[in-house]
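Researcher: Let's try something more involved. This one mixes different molecule types, so please make sure each is placed in the same coordinate frame as the others.
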Amino acid sequence: MPNAILLISCRDKKGITATVTDFVFKNNGNIEHADQHIDAQSNIFFMRIEWSLKNFKIAKNKIAAAFKPIAGQFAMDWNLYFTDETPRVAIFVSSYPHCLYDLLLRHKAGQLKCAIPLIISNHKDAKTIARDFGIKFLEFPITQQNKLAQERKQIALLRKESIEMVILARYGQIFTKQFVDAFPSRIINIHHSFLPAFAGSSPYDQAYRKGVKIIGATSHYVVSKLDAGPIIEQDTVRVSHRASLEDLKLKGEDLEKVVLSRAVRWHLERKILVYNNKTVIFD
Amino acid sequence: MPNAILLISCRDKKGITATVTDFVFKNNGNIEHADQHIDAQSNIFFMRIEWSLKNFKIAKNKIAAAFKPIAGQFAMDWNLYFTDETPRVAIFVSSYPHCLYDLLLRHKAGQLKCAIPLIISNHKDAKTIARDFGIKFLEFPITQQNKLAQERKQIALLRKESIEMVILARYGQIFTKQFVDAFPSRIINIHHSFLPAFAGSSPYDQAYRKGVKIIGATSHYVVSKLDAGPIIEQDTVRVSHRASLEDLKLKGEDLEKVVLSRAVRWHLERKILVYNNKTVIFD
Amino acid sequence: MPNAILLISCRDKKGITATVTDFVFKNNGNIEHADQHIDAQSNIFFMRIEWSLKNFKIAKNKIAAAFKPIAGQFAMDWNLYFTDETPRVAIFVSSYPHCLYDLLLRHKAGQLKCAIPLIISNHKDAKTIARDFGIKFLEFPITQQNKLAQERKQIALLRKESIEMVILARYGQIFTKQFVDAFPSRIINIHHSFLPAFAGSSPYDQAYRKGVKIIGATSHYVVSKLDAGPIIEQDTVRVSHRASLEDLKLKGEDLEKVVLSRAVRWHLERKILVYNNKTVIFD
Amino acid sequence: MPNAILLISCRDKKGITATVTDFVFKNNGNIEHADQHIDAQSNIFFMRIEWSLKNFKIAKNKIAAAFKPIAGQFAMDWNLYFTDETPRVAIFVSSYPHCLYDLLLRHKAGQLKCAIPLIISNHKDAKTIARDFGIKFLEFPITQQNKLAQERKQIALLRKESIEMVILARYGQIFTKQFVDAFPSRIINIHHSFLPAFAGSSPYDQAYRKGVKIIGATSHYVVSKLDAGPIIEQDTVRVSHRASLEDLKLKGEDLEKVVLSRAVRWHLERKILVYNNKTVIFD
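Model: All components are placed in one shared frame. Result:
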């Protein structure tokens, strides 16, 4: 039997936790995880609750309907997931393959609960990697002229393939608003700097020129504004004046892999709530 | 109006969260924090719930009695605290004053919600520090012969002063079982290594001889077995072959201060649950 | 007998290291530390060499003259220091005392080889701290109108007191070019963010609003452009959505103390070379 | 033209640096890196010097002979390397493939300057990985009875293949003294704990039971005593009570990959000196 997962956010009020946990309890569900958070400044309540459907009194396909009145009572934003669903994921990549390899190997090792039916690139470079892992590869060369048209084709393709989530594994192109709006809070990017420092292009060059003593990597949901979406995860590593630009890249790539894969795993495990361009991570 | 805090642990069963949150909700309490954790291996349920007593229907001094039936129903270990109580703390120190200073300055800055009426040492060194901060200082010279007798006097003194918590801020003496048993899960020590590595004396010397590339510090509750109690917090910092033994101590002392003060703050904020010689920290 | 320390930078050429180490060796000096670095991009050579003056053939006050021809041969920027000199340091502070306390306690513990004859503030708050540590305290209230005049008085005072180095230990005022130019590469500031992110005022508020998952602190030499000087040291610490703005400040202050004190120690130990708005740290 | 690299250790004396750098300078070599370290406790001098052979007056194959008198004068342990040599490396692995994959992908990306002609295992599991990367795979099943005989065969094979360095990428077997002695300071192991804590088997289980708040990984040269060889690199990552044993392994594997690959790279770049069961890393 799978588990059910509810992700909830709403204005804080007395009784939310009691009401939600009572809903699970009365229907004979066993809560395996329950996390809540109240944002003190905005007074918004966030909750993630996961319970076993073993002996649960409500059939899986009727839980949403049964929960609706409670959601209404508290004016909740909410999503219901089940752990036996397998989200379908597409990976976009350009010429640096390290994050792509990393995701594919983690997937192969069973660490990412998803299907990866599709790899998309603006180059040919990753074609053999896709083939080695038995994944369909599609090249969409991008120019200033064809970008909007190519994006429309990509959107159509992703919809046809029922892609729920898009991972930008060092994808070098900037999407237009059209693409971003098609997958709100469903596109995860890895940026190779400690955002908001060094947004935009060539962050390692920027960091090297600035002479920072620590470099970082940031995974975030993509929004229309470049490198400005809600941050999911960050990590940093120490560098010294001895580090060349090449050394920065080498150290940074190790961060990128870890930071991106954590974000993807949390997304797939339904542990992320977005609000106010920030994230709550129930890890 | 203060908040109430319940710390609960018991065997996991359906309905605990629902029942506890319902208790708060029915009595018109507003939950400000609720964290729970289920240890998958031992199937033990842990909860910390904090709610505002503003408009709470049960008087502060009757809450414990009102909650007792629920505690009984689930065979809970539980403690009830109120945020307007000020725990009384004694600090033990020997000749290194950096942790003592750090705690006293944090206390002065309002970061530690407690009273510190007492500093105890086996040396005279900290006497002037105690005086500068207006705290009573007592010297208990310790020899192999007088240790048990001195400990008995210390226990009597701590009880007389209603000391709830003892902090060992680089106290060089090892307590006997007699003292440890008098304050179960109420003595916090800082050990200047990444436990379980380099337990016992001179951990920096041990680390230096071993040639480790990272050093650490560990705060833990004291149990009879030396440096073996439940770990509350740890932190580490990178060192290189260039670091002398002195450099290790210098870097380590910065860790010690941070690691000890975090443990103390969490204890005072009732965020720590101990089980099976481990800790759950609801930070 | 003290050690001599040479800090050297010049265009890289064959024979620099050989010539400098030969200078020390021929005159019977025993090299205790020698570090060099070549910046691959700018082709600049940096060196720090420290040797014992025990049995050194050249008298201490004649070493500079003896080294001059070598410096000339390679067109070096160079400075000669001796470990028995005690630099005189002034600390500027506003209302947050944690960095000030930290520096004073490290100084008292013998970890900072300098004299601290002077604490300067735009407020009265730190007066009692200065008194407790037996240090002269001077208040310079700053307004938009009197800033230039007050700075002139401060510069005169610092010169009269033979102050070699200025530490801004959370000093809230921004200096004009006039003050900065009077102490080039001799003013160390602590900024409570991971620069270049969150420069300017209220960096913790900025970080909190942005929803970063890691916060940082940066020590740097002050230049005319705000928070843009050569970075000496940085450190970071992980935060989560659970952290309030207050929690960020609390965690950040621990970083600030460590990051500032490292920078100050390296400066005092003559381990820092500045070039191209970056630093080489021979730690 | 390649660079030459000298790794030197000897009792500290006046004039070593001057003599060595003069040797390079007089023969028209341009020093690109020079690092030295003096161990204050043992008074041992360590040096790594790398210079360009472009226009160097001594032919590559005569440098060793030319340097010998200097080495004799100071009773040096020394090794001479050239950057156009490509060390041959064998990787041993058992059933966890993450470190193997990581090394192979870094090698493919040009980050490890070596040849990897051989993968050896006590299982069949890695056979397809070896094939995918075009590397010879040999299975040596190990039992208590055949271990010594199998090791003899492995030693013979490694010699026949001119293997200079052995990497244990989560190899589950413990070598006997016979094998270890055949490759002194030439076998690098990754141990999945922060040594000396949790040596031996199942370190993640040990860490989980102990309730540590930080886990680590350690790369070290293999000596006869289990997990006790000179430490090359370590790293740590924070965990909480929420982390299951599986989570520990997942986080730990990311550390293992980074920590092992750094050690391998430093070894290949001739940046490691071993003494007194510790390492000097000129990174």
